[in-house]
């Protein structure tokens, strides 16, 4: 835009000062703080685009796999700890014998089949619906719906699943012609907005849990700014990349279940949290690939 602000179409030279004051180009050469911030973020985005160009075609597949990895791990956990799961549901949740078997069996089947469908990009609507149903039924079945951290993490997982739907509709919009495209485009916009809003709830849980330190305060502030930028859709790709880095480092340091003894009481919890965060990182990866959508500041700037 700097080239447009000069003396074009007025035939005024750079040193022409009709009123004895500074030239127009000199008066507008000093950028505002917002312009300076935008210039720096544009440079970062250009660098990220160049750096990520080799892996960009694989981002949708990586994102989809990471989103469902927590469901695959959970299905494997239920099968390998079948008797412990039955005992917990019977003794602590007071679910009648028989219904416990049905509950676990249906969960394993739904998580396995729906996860494979998401990875293979087949029947994504039904697959996402099945996984959303699993999230809700497990929250009720295991009695964790009133646990704040569990609730916020599952909201973020749901956000990742909504990003899968948006990605599916984004890919299908070129395959059909006519009015149905408009309906699908509208659905994609709303689900993409809901998905990126829900994705950041995990970070809210991270901010309000654990012991405070200087490092935690700095990371929380950076993450909070990135979350706000993701919600409003301002430099959303850059913000999503920052959150991916923060969550990945946090996940490796805090949820390092592989360093715990196999019979350590906290190993299963750390493993569960590790794979859940991977799923949310997968949703952010899809956001990086697709962009924030039409309900965003980034998209409005293109229009105006």
UniProtKB/TrEMBL annotation:
Residues 11-34 are annotated as: Disordered. It holds the Pfam family SURF4. It is a multi-pass membrane protein. The keyword Ubl conjugation does not apply. The chain crosses the membrane at residues 99-119, 126-145, 151-169, 190-208, 214-234, 241-260, 272-292. Its main location: endoplasmic reticulum. The keyword Transport applies. Keywords: Endoplasmic reticulum, Membrane, Protein transport, Transmembrane, Transmembrane helix, Transport. It is found in: Endoplasmic reticulum membrane. InterPro entries: Surf1/Surf4, Surf4. PANTHER family: SURFEIT LOCUS PROTEIN, SURFEIT LOCUS PROTEIN 4. Belongs to the SURF4 family. This is ER-derived vesicles protein erv29. The gene is ERV29.
């Amino acid at each position: 835009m700097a080239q447009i602000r000069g003396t074009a179409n007025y035939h005024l030279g750079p040193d022409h000062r009709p009123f004895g004051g500074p030239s127009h180009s000199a008066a507008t050469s000093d950028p505002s703080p917002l312009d300076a911030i935008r210039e720096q973020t544009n440079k970062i985005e250009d660098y990220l685009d160049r750096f990520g160009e080799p892996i960009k075609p694989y981002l949708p597949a990586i994102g989809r796999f990471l989103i469902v990895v927590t469901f695959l791990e959970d299905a494997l956990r239920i099968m390998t700890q079948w008797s412990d799961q039955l005992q917990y549901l019977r003794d602590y949740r007071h679910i009648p014998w028989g219904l416990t078997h049905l509950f676990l069996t249906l969960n394993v089947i739904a998580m396995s089949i729906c996860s494979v469908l998401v990875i293979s990009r087949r029947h994504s609507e039904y697959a996402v619906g099945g996984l959303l149903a699993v999230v809700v039924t497990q929250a009720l079945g295991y009695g964790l719906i009133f646990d704040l951290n569990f609730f916020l993490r599952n909201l973020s997982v749901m956000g990742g699943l909504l990003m899968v739907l948006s990605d599916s509709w984004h890919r299908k919009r070129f395959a059909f012609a006519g009015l149905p495209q408009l309906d699908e485009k509208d659905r994609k916009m709303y689900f993409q907005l809901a998905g990126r809003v829900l994705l950041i709830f995990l970070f809210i849980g991270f901010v309000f849990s654990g012991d405070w330190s200087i490092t935690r305060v700095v990371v929380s502030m950076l993450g909070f700014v990135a979350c706000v930028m993701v919600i409003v859709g301002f430099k959303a790709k850059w913000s999503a990349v920052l959150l991916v880095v923060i969550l990945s480092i946090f996940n490796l340091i805090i949820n390092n279940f592989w360093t715990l003894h196999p019979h350590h009481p906290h190993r299963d919890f750390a493993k569960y949290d590790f794979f859940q965060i991977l799923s949310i990182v997968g949703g952010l990866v899809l956001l990086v690939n697709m962009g924030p959508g039409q309900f965003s500041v980034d998209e409005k700037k293109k229009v105006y």
